Amino acid sequence: MKIKSADFLMSNSNVENCPNQPLPEYAFIGRSNVGKSSLINMLTSRKSLAKTSGRPGKTQLINHFKINDQWFLVDLPGYGYARVSKKDKKTFQKYITDYFLKREQLVSAFLLIDIRHEAQKIDLEFMQWLGENGIPFSILFTKADKLKPKAIERNVKNYLDQLLLGAWEEVPNHFITSSSNSLGKEEVLNYIQEINTRFYEGK
Questions:
Q1: How many CB atoms lie within 10 A of CB 194?
Q2: 12-45 per-position pLDDT tens digit
């Protein structure tokens, strides 16, 4: 898939106010320091489509970006270590929960994981929640440029092995990515294109 157009449409804090358009949506979410904005900019070939910041937790609303006039990329608030108040964290959590449970246009989520670190409890719990609620998702391992190939292979295997030790019968679909060198870009976009093709053929 080639990204020919990528336009910011709207931000809001209420799933009821999300765009009323019958287009498939792909939600991107992860801990607040995982490099989500950089990854979105890499995938769309836009330097500043999603706002990047040295301060984690910059994304604080549900952000819709219309891609190729065919689908929406949805940038959701991060979770985990953002420097925000407990009240704000609860508010963000409600945005996230409402979006995933109520948004009929959502066809798949992408959960971003920093490949440099061991499995974090908060990520594993969120995956479990997605699985229990029947929400399709893939894992995007980010920042692969920070590690050598053998370390990448080892860390991914360790992460997936831990999932298999839990309640997962098989590991979720996953991609290895880097915003710095566009690693994984073609694979992720082709995956989205495959889902879009099935979506529109089923209309």
A1: 11
A2: 988 999 999 999 999 999 987 899 999 999 999 9
Q: Where are the domains of the chain?
A: 6-201
- Domain 6-201, what fold? Rossmann fold (3.40.50)
pTM of the model: 0.91
Integer angstrom CA distances of residue 189 from 85, 150, 183, 196: 35, 25, 12, 10
How far is residue 116's CA from residue 130's CA, in Å, rounded to a whole number? 23
Q: How many residues does the chain have?
A: 203
Q: Are 154 and 189 in contact (CB under 8 A)?
A: no
- The answer to whether 35 and 116 have CB atoms below 8 angstroms apart is no
User: At 53, is the secondary structure helix, strand, or coil?
Assistant: coil
**Locus of tokens 């999300």:** 18
- Which two structure tokens, joined as six digits, stand for 102? 């109520």
Cα atoms in the Cβ-side hemisphere of radius 13 Å centred on 141: 25
d(CA 40, CA 37): 5
DSSP strand pairing (25-30 vs 106-114)? parallel
- Written as six digits, the tokens of 96 are 């996230």
Which tokens sit at 17?
Answer: 């106010």
Task: Record the tokens describing residue 139, joined without a space.
Answer: 């894992």
Give one DSSP letter per residue of 1-22, joined into a string.
-----EEEEEEES-GGGS----
Do residues 114 and 146 touch, judged by C-beta distance below 8 A?
A: no
